Amino acid sequence: MLYHAYEMQRAWLNGASAWASIGAELMSNPSYPAAYLGVAPSAASALEVFAHATQSRGKPAFEIDHVTIGGTAHPVTEAIVYNKPFGDLRRFTRDGLPADAPKVLIVAPMSGHYATLLRGTVERMVENAEVFITDWADARDVPAAAGRFDLDDYIDYLIDFLAFIGPHTHVIAVCQPSVPALAATAVMNAGLHPARPATLTMMGGPIDTRCSPTTVNDLAMERPIEWFRQSVIATVPGQYRGHGRQVYPGFLQLAGFMSMNLGNHLMSHYEMFKHLTAGDDASADATKAFYDDYRSVCDMTAEFYLQTVEEVFQKHSLPNGTFMHRGEPVDLGAIRDTALLAVEGERDDISGLGQTRAALDLATGLADGKKLYFLAEGAGHYGIFNGSRWRDKIAPVVEAFVAAHGRVGLKAVA
Fold first, then answer.
1. Taking a C-beta distance cutoff of 8 angstroms, is the pair 74, 67 a contact?
2. What pTM did the predictor assign?
């Protein structure tokens, strides 16, 4: 019933959004007499803000057609190079990239948003690297015949993607995937896998959520896993390809994120209203662009969501040494070849300070010279991987780390 209620609400809002958009155009049309009323600019702006906030959104495109380096534009080529039921591997490369440029795999979160939320991450890294990104599928569009997808499968996907890309690949895991990426790195190091990553950068990841717990962590700890199973899991309705699949709907995840910082979101929309009224379309468009990505959400499989809540946020399995992959314990002490970089944002309200840094202490078999911690001063969660702080302060640290640990010794698979 949950999904059906949402679909009914969305159908109503789609109509309201369309009418609001028409009203905004009328109130700003010089041929319309009411446009000359004193309240017309404010009314048009208010209607436009409402229309934008309530319109339906599908999966956005990356739309990275070029990058500018030293004043010169370099075309960027995008292609799907590996396809799997629950996610594709996308590749981005620019013209003129040196033959010895590093290969970077960006692991996007499977947390309700599409991989395009990391558009800024890709755009910055493709300046100096051949970039791959995990483009996870919307679970509601994956036929039930494709089977389950849980944390074990996520780790297997990462290992498959790394094997496809090849040796000496550098991994950047943003937020939630820091956990499965660290686990995959441990599994590959333990098996001396030839494609084990040269470096793993974890950015704002919940490695040990007992450190500086945030509202997100508290919510996961307040209720037993059965509450989540009974309260937030829904069945995909018949009009989607994945009908019958059990999912954690993206619209619930978005509602949770919005409610955490409701005041900030309301203020952002008020600022958009003021920009539109003042004729500052550029500033309004910047806000619209952010929310176009932020409100574009997708569903997660129920098994992946519930296992993540239980293992990462309730049992703290990774830092406790009880995390399992395919029935075998994951030994973080087995990481001896992959250099680790932990990046945290000073003002991160999703992953608190110390949660990502914990990975460095847990990798007991790794030499100190292969560990690095970076605190991004003034950065919130989103600012770690997007925006000016990411481009100017954090990305150079990641690139320097990649350059310092460019290769990993090849050995036969045990």
1. yes
2. 0.85
